[in-house]
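Hello,

Our lab assistant flagged a job as stuck in the queue for most of the afternoon. It eventually completed. Since we weren't sure the result was trustworthy after the delay, we are filing this so someone can double-check. Below is the sequence as submitted and the structure that was eventually returned. Let us know if re-running is recommended.
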Amino acid sequence: MCDGTVVPRGGARAARRCERPHVGVLGKPVPWCFASAGCPAQARPPAGVLYGGRPRLPDGVGSRDSSSRGRPPCVAAMPDSWDKDVYPEPPRRTPAPSPQTSLPNPITYFTKAFDFLVDRPVTLVREFIEQQHAKNRYYYYHREFRRVPDITECKEKDVLCMFEAEMQWRRDYKVDQEIVNIIQERLKACQQREGESHRQNCAKELEQFAQVAKAYQDRYHDLGAHYSARKCLAKQKQRMLAERKAAKEAAAA
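-- returned structure --
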C-alpha cells in the first residue's frame, strides 16, 4: 500500500493513483484517501473533514472489506488539521461589506453638504432665538370668551348679535369635537388594556361614548361643508317637528 506495505491486486494502479493527487475545487492538489478497511489509521483524515470534494466517514461507517474489488487506495499519513489554504475556515462573524468599486459614494458627500449648508445654520439660528426668548419669557394663558346670546335670541336686523352668536357656535362645535375624541381615546385605551375582557370591563366607557356620539350626531350631523349656526338651528327645528309627529302617531295608535 501507500505506507510501504504489500500492495494487493490492482496495486500498481492504486500506486499510480496515490502518486497523482486529486485536484480540489480550489485548484489545489488534494490526496486520494477515503474511509477504507485497507488504509491504516494514521493514513486516514479526521472524520468529517473534506478531501477531494467528498466527506470522510467515521470508522466502520460505509467501509468495505479489504478483499472487495475496486477498493479505494490510500496515501501516507495525513495531518490532524486540514489544509486551510485549500479549505479555509468559515468566518465566525459577518464580514464587513467591502466596496466593489474605488469610486466615492455620492450619498456621503450629499449628506455632509446638507449638514453644513442646511442643518447647522438652521440649528444655530434656532438656538440663538431660544436664548433670546429665554431672556424675555412670555407666558401664555387660555383665553376665556364671554358667553353671548344665542342666535335664537338675536333680533332680525341685529347683524352684530348674529355674528357673535355664529362665532360662539363655531367655538362650541370645536369643543364638542374634542370631547368626542377624548371619550373615544379613553374607550380605545380601555380596550387595549383589557384585551379579550373589554366587553365586561369597558362597559362604562362604551356606554359613555355611545351617549356622547349620539348627542353629537343629533346636533351636527348632515350639516355639510358650509356649516353655520343658522343651518344647525334649522336642523334642530326639523328634528323637533319629526319627534312631535312620531309622538302623535304613537298616541293615536
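-- support follow-up --
The delay was a queue issue, not a problem with the job. The result is valid. The helical segments are 11-19, 106-135, 159-194, 198-201, 203-220, 229-252. The mean pLDDT is 75.
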